[in-house]
Design brief:
Layout (H helix, E strand, L loop, with lengths): L1 H8 L13 H17 L8 E6 L3 E4 L4 E12 L2 E12 L6 E8 L11 H6 L3 E6 L13 H6 L14 H16 L5 E11 L1 H12 L5 E5 L17 H7 L26 H7 L3 E7 L7 H17 L17 E2 L4 E6 L7 H17 L2
Parallel strand pairs: 5-6, 5-7, 7-8, 8-9, 9-11
Antiparallel strand pairs: 1-3, 2-3, 3-4, 4-6, 10-11
Helix pairs in contact: 2-8, 5-6, 6-8, 8-9
């Protein structure tokens, strides 16, 4: 098998043993590994949480949807923290609808990563927030959620203390808290989606929160949805030099192991495996060499045994490197490769919606 041989050449470690009868403990161990070695320990749910809905915009998306803001009022570590997100709902459905939780770079819609009218027309709802409304995308740990987590402003972050990705994932989970209060949303068919650093955030969200049935990682690449060992483009050295605040301090200890010399005892497929037996979808672009589409596909191959151990279909594809136009979604680990650059495009959204609709029909 070509793909399996490629994993062996890169010295990608096998997953720890997984058995159906010990899956809860196996999953716990996978999460602990990824948190302690890369993302930092998870942030607990808030001490208190309530939601305040704002005015509704009717006749949204040519009259096929409505839109309204929601403010989440939380208390974290004894400190109040509020943030606002947006809810977009189709109005043409006669039953609860599937939905996306999107942590985005932008506010408002439509925007460059959110073709909202097409999504509404397909019968999906979207709950989305701007990631910097949770905390800023920099080394400042004195604002937003970071200020609640770090009373000292992050001056003395321990080796396993959380970085910003864990904080943005915490925000996604609060949107799911709200979604669970909505009778017009299909709670069994909720997805979390993100692009680039927020694709990594979507994966961490799916790892931490089993309420998300679908996890869509778009162009997440290094330290996200790509195998680290001998990948092309961005490496651990690059990402921790530029964005050390995304991760726990301990992650820097793996900088010298980018080449895969056998000493790094985990890789990104451990995080994929922690999401089993739910559905993981990976989106890649042929010109996104920094993320490395080949290494993104290999992450699916390496994680597939977790689904198989749980009696589910894992990754199913042709035994070769991906070609432009490939969309492998027969199993519960899915991958598509489109033409183009690093971007969350309309074609990506269509691929994710196609797969969710396919899985929903299979589960009827």
């Amino acid at each position: 098998m070509i793909l399996e041989k490629n994993l062996l050449k890169r010295e990608v470690p096998a997953l720890p043993e997984i058995k159906p009868e010990t899956w809860a403990k196996n999953r716990e161990d996978l999460i602990r590994i990824m948190c302690e070695k890369e993302y930092g320990n998870p942030i607990p749910a808030p001490d208190s949480l309530s939601f305040e809905e704002g005015p509704v915009t009717l006749k949204f998306c040519a009259g096929f949807g409505i839109q309204f803001p929601v403010t989440a009022h939380t208390v974290v570590a004894g400190k109040p923290f509020d943030f606002t997100f947006t809810v977009n709902l189709p109005t043409t459905a006669d039953k609860p609808v599937p939905f996306f939780v999107l942590c985005n770079f932008h506010r408002g819609e439509p925007n460059m990563y959110l073709p909202i009218e097409e999504i509404i027309d397909r019968g999906f709802a979207v709950l989305h927030l701007n990631y910097e409304d949770i905390t800023s995308d920099d080394g400042d740990f004195t604002n937003g959620l970071a200020a609640c987590v770090y009373p000292d402003g992050g001056e003395n972050r321990g080796p396993y203390d959380p970085g910003k990705i864990q904080m943005w994932a915490w925000g996604n989970m609060r949107l799911m808290d709200y979604a669970m209060t909505c009778n017009n949303l299909d709670h069994k068919n909720g997805a979390v989606i993100g692009h680039s650093r927020l694709g990594k955030t979507a994966l961490v969200t799916g790892m931490m929160d089993e309420r998300f049935q679908y996890v869509c990682s778009n162009n997440a690449g290094c330290s996200g949805d790509a195998i680290t060992r001998r990948k092309e483009g961005e490496r651990i050295r690059d990402i921790t030099n530029k964005f050390p605040f995304w991760f726990c301090e301990n992650y820097k200890s793996y900088v010298s192991m980018d080449g895969g010399n056998g000493h790094m005892d985990f890789d990104q497929h451990f995080m994929f495996a922690s999401i089993a037996p739910r559905v993981v979808m990976v989106g890649a672009a042929n010109d996104d060499n920094w993320a490395d589409p080949v290494s993104q596909q290999l992450c699916c191959v390496a994680a597939s045994p977790a689904w198989e151990a749980l009696g589910k279909v894992g990754y199913v594809s042709a035994d070769r490197n991906p070609w432009i136009g490939d969309h492998f979604n027969e199993g519960n680990l899915c991958y598509h490769l489109r033409r183009g650059i690093h971007f969350l495009s309309r074609l990506d959204w269509i691929a994710y919606m196609d797969t969710i609709e396919k899985k929903m029909k299979e589960n009827q």
